[in-house]
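pinging the channel bc i need a second pair of eyes. not urgent but kinda urgent?? the chain im working w is below, pasted from the shared doc
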Amino acid sequence: MQTVAYDGSSFAGFQYQTPKVRTVQGELERAAARVLLPAGRVVGASRTDGGAHATGQVAHLDVTGAADSIQPASLMMYLNGVLPDDVKVQQLQVAPAGT
């Protein structure tokens, strides 16, 4: 589970739309794909419209394979290192399987 913050000024909202439309989910998935192989789909607990900002937005990403052994603090650092300046992971923690 991850908690993210973003300045929505240049986003078309949270939910992924198409590769040409910039969304928060799209940026989170691109970052995860750069850091984790394989990377899955980011699922947000809620959505925001274009231009809306958020702090404390909760989302999850299922991690499998070798990526499963990465410590949450390290993974958060890696993700924040590749995310653009207007999106940041504030907190990252492991959730028990099936939750």
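so The longest strand covers residues 54-61. and The CA atoms of residues 13 and 50 lie 4 Å apart. — does that match what u expected or am i reading it wrong
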